[in-house]
Amino acid sequence: MSDDDTFYIELDRLGEKAVRERLAKRVYGEKKILLVQHWLSEQASNRQEHKDQQVAARESEAIRLSKQANAISISAVVISAIAILCTFILAYQQNKISRDTYELTATPVITMEYSGSDKIFYIFNKGSAPVTIWGHRVHDNPPKQHSKSGLIPVGTNQYMSLSELENEINLAHLAITKSSYNDSLIIPIEVYVTDIKERQYTAKASIYVRSTDRETIDLGITAEGVIAGGWPKDISQKPPGNPEKIFLKVNKNEIQ
């Protein structure tokens, strides 16, 4: 081992603080001073390298933690999105089940209106599922089977013109006024319908007839609700000529 190596070992034993104190007191000769300065330079270089390594380690750890946080954040977003999607799907399925159940169990909602300018009786479907008209009856007249079924989708209407009902209304009018004359008369009318499960219902209404000298001058109609059944034996779901049941075009497989 050379003298320089032995001297460096001595400096390592003393430590940087003691070496600097001795250097300040001029303990070392000129030859040793060069070795001390070289040793101190190496100490500073080692110290800086250690600091750089610490900084790099901290930056690496920060990057690792950031990536981990991003991964957790992305996972949370994905889980949240899946949860929201599942909530929507569940709500949709529950709503569909409720709607289908309601459509299969609810009584149809039928309203009727009369347009004096058009001379037409409108029959509106304000329920939750299509209905089909098969016939009607005015007062005590014989029930009238329609020649073919009439589909009424939800939110739409079918109509009967005054000319189609005029004879029946006049007969009812005469029957009511046969024994006495009234300025305002009420004539009952029934419309026979089925729902999408072919269950029978009767929609009831009252036709208001205002007349002078037994001449009809004004008409009106008020719906009175729908009851289950109530069909006379003269009305059936197989009209003459066996016309197509239009309402069966609804996807029946989905409701059975």
Rg result: 49 Å
What is the ordering of alpha helices and beta strands? HHHEEEEEHEEE
Tally of distinct domains: 2
Strand content: 25-35%
Helix content: 40-55%
Question: What's the short version?
Answer:
44% of the residues lie in helices and 28% in strands. It is of the alpha+beta class and 256 residues long.
Question: Would you write up a description of this structure?
Answer:
- The chain is α+β, with helices and mostly antiparallel strands and 256 residues long.
- The chain has two domains: 3-67, no CATH class; 108-254, no CATH class.
- It is 44% helix and 28% strand.
- The protein has helices spanning 3-14, 16-24, 30-105, 162-176, and strands at 110-115, 120-125, 131-138, 144-152, 157-161, 184-194, 200-212, 215-228.
- The protein has a five-stranded antiparallel sheet with strand order 4-3-6-7-8.
- It starts with a helix and ends in a 28-residue tail after the last strand.
